[in-house]
Design goal:
- This protein is of the alpha+beta class.
- It has 3 helices and 3 strands; from the N terminus they run αββααβ.
- About 40% of the residues lie in helices and about 25% in strands.
- It has a 3-stranded mixed beta sheet with strand order 1-2-3, with no helix packed on it.
- It is globular.
- Belongs to the BolA/IbaG family.
Length: about 70
């Protein structure tokens, strides 16, 4: 998966206030770390936020070796 596709999937699914995506795999697209701030997370605890993002990016995460948020 490439960074642009990952960013598009996130931005198309929810309102984004801040987004940082770092490819931690030396450019091969197998490991990403993200920092995501969104109003969609309001009222959700950390675990609920992580589950929300994992569900949102289920197809993309399945093609990665590692994903952290």
């Amino acid at each position: 998966i490439n960074l642009a596709d990952l960013e598009a999937a996130i931005r198309n699914a929810l309102p984004v206030s801040h987004l940082e995506i770092k490819d931690q795999s030396s450019g091969c697209g197998e490991s990403y770390a993200i920092v995501l701030v969104s109003d969609a997370f309001e009222g959700k605890n950390t675990l609920a936020r992580h589950r929300f993002v994992n569900d949102l990016l289920k197809a993309q995460i399945a093609r990665m070796h590692a994903f952290s948020q």
